[in-house]
Amino acid sequence: MSALAKNAKTLLNSTAAKTAETTYRETLSTEITTALALVESKSTSSSSATALAKKCRESATALQKAMDAVSASIEQQSGVDCDKLKCVALTFDDGPSAVNDSKLRDELDKLKVKATFFMIGKNITSSTS
């Protein structure tokens, strides 16, 4: 239970700067607090082992559900799950450029990397499109 709560805290902290639904993050925070309180109470609890085990299972299930909701929220916002796919986003302030774009495309081809380019602005010419 404490390991799961630690993982949940890591997730909560790592999503602080992201725009995940606040409700999901608040729920996760509440479930972390509940799980940690349960861990603390195990040593002083007068509950039976069966009752304590049931509380632990319920808390672990709720905590995992809250973690899944935060993760799904972030994944939905990005449209791409970079935990499952290898992905990177690049921006070029001074592009497109016939020299730089062809070098980049050649390198991507050599590495068998798929890429999508969105070209906008006044620098688009027949050599860059």
TrEMBL record:
Pfam families: Polysacc_deac_1 (PF01522). Signal peptide: none annotated. It comes from the Bacteria. Residues 86-129 form the NodB homology domain. One of its GO terms (molecular function) is hydrolase activity, acting on carbon-nitrogen (but not peptide) bonds. SUPFAM superfamilies: Glycoside hydrolase/deacetylase. GO terms for biological process: carbohydrate metabolic process. This is Polysacc_deac_1. It comes from uncultured Streptosporangium sp.
